[in-house]
């Protein structure tokens, strides 16, 4: 499985941003897609994830209410929309895929990782 994350950039505090993760190599419906982020000097942190058939979305409590995770099967793409960004959201954002998984917050559950996209929130 190959994962391509995109959509990061430099934004202002309070802005919104949508990240994309396009997967290839396996049927998209078979993949749970998780989003993680990592700030300098910190451990990789689960943000949220989603699977389909059956549909299931999982959000981290730390960002719940500010993010929306969705999937477009026709485009083999998952999205992470983040609102009301602040400096604590700065970091490298990674998408990961787990074959047949449940979009858990456990790093080791994921079999494939994208290259990451940088999000920098300026105050």
Can you tell me about this structure?
The protein is mainly β and 123 residues long. The strands form 2 sheets. Strands 2, 4, 5, 6, 9, 10 and 11 form a 7-stranded mixed beta sheet that branches. It has a 4-stranded antiparallel beta sheet with strand order 1-3-8-7, with no helix packed on it. The model has no long low-confidence stretch (mean pLDDT 96).
Q: By helix and strand content, what is the structural category?
A: mainly beta
The total strand number stands at 11
What share of the residues does DSSP label as strand, in percent?
A: over 45%
Average pLDDT number? 96
Separation of termini? 37 Å
* Tally of helical segments: 0
Q: How would the global form be characterised?
A: globular
Order of helices and strands: EEEEEEEEEEE
Helix coverage percent: under 10%
The largest pleated sheet is described as: 7 strands, mixed
Radius of gyration: 13 Å
The low-confidence parts are none
Entry summary:
Helix content is 0%, strand content 53%. It has 123 residues and is an all-beta fold.
Topology readout:
Blueprint: E1 2-6, E2 9-12, E3 17-24, E4 31-38, E5 45-51, E6 56-59, E7 67-72, E8 77-82, E9 91-99, E10 112-113, E11 117-122
Parallel strand pairs: 2-11
Antiparallel strand pairs: 1-3, 3-8, 4-5, 4-9, 5-6, 7-8, 9-10, 9-11
């Amino acid at each position: 499985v190959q994962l391509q994350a995109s959509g990061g950039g430099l934004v202002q505090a309070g802005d919104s941003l949508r990240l994309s993760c396009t997967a290839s190599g396996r049927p998209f419906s078979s993949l749970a897609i998780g989003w993680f982020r990592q700030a300098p000097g910190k451990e990789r942190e689960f943000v949220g994830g989603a699977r389909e058939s059956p549909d299931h979305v999982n959000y981290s409590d730390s960002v719940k209410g500010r993010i929306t995770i969705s999937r477009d099967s026709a485009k083999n793409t998952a999205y992470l929309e983040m609102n009301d960004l602040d400096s604590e959201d700065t970091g490298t954002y990674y998408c990961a895929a787990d074959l047949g998984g449940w979009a858990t917050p456990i790093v080791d559950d994921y079999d494939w990782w994208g290259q990451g996209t940088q999000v920098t929130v300026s105050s």
